[in-house]
Amino acid sequence: MNMHVDMGRALAGLDCPALERLAKTMSVDAGVRATTDDNLRAAGVDRRVPEQKLDAAIDEFASIRLPEQIDGEFVEGRRADLTVFDDARVAVRGHALAQRNLLERLETELLGGTLDTAGSGGGIQPDQILQQLVDVIAQGKSDVDAYATIVEGLTKYFQSVADVMSKLQDYISAKDDKNMKIDGGKIKALIQQVIDNLPKMQLPKGADIARWRKELGDAVSISDSGVVTINPDKLIKMRDSLPPDGTVWDTARYQAWNTAFSGQKDNIQNDVQTLVEKYSHQNSNFDNLVKVLSGAISTLTDTAKSYLQI
What we know:
Layout: H1 3-11, H2 16-25, H3 29-42, H4 48-62, E1 68-70, E2 73-75, H5 83-118, H6 128-167, E3 172-174, E4 179-182, H7 184-196, E5 200-202, H8 209-216, E6 220-222, E7 227-230, H9 233-240, E8 247-250, H10 251-309
Antiparallel strand pairs: 1-2, 3-4, 4-8, 5-7, 6-7
GO cellular component, one term: extracellular region
Organism: Burkholderia thailandensis
InterPro entries: BipD-like_sf, IpaD/BipD/SipD
């Protein structure tokens, strides 16, 4: 295959399917894969760690249950272990730092080595592929930073909602075996506090705003200056469904409210789940990008050495 042509196509606009194909089929495949795996391990880039932590946070959120009455018996709800969300944020940030460090290593050590091999007087000028490597590394850093910032912010939001859902247990009780008492005003105040303190995330300078709006969908809004704000609509629906303090509902009415209220909680969970899936896809793209960058740099270095031997 024409390595330079295929690299150019794959690197142009970070064509993810092309990157994946090229990562699997490039002529230095065996050596590149071994080198890339070593680099990933040495740099601490293991996508399984943050993804497993995020999955654990989603499972913890899903396990939260509100109190209810079953056959006249009051059944307490289940609270969340909020430390699970802290663990996920730490893992995401650590993984992003390792990814960025690896890109910088490729840029300074390997890409720099390509230029050194050619030499300033070697007659080889940086070509289009080399410039694409420089550009795509910069784009890779931007994407790593953006996704880490957004996923961290969404996880913090997720944790805040989990905290509220856990505290709800303190404001819902059984009046008797047929009725439930709910202090809706106090719960409203908790939800409003989350709405008033939603995380705001800033995309990296120069980020393609239109691309990120398409990537992240309706779960967030993105200003023209790149400020990412979480859409509060689901929280507002939860807040507005609540009655005043001291309200007593029969079990049927309470169950109907609980179903609708918990449905909005599930919608929030779905938003986060969708983002986590996109984050996983981004990590896969990163792995393929590293393989292609390593192969491209190896190819350019070999080309420069061959030129100097002529």
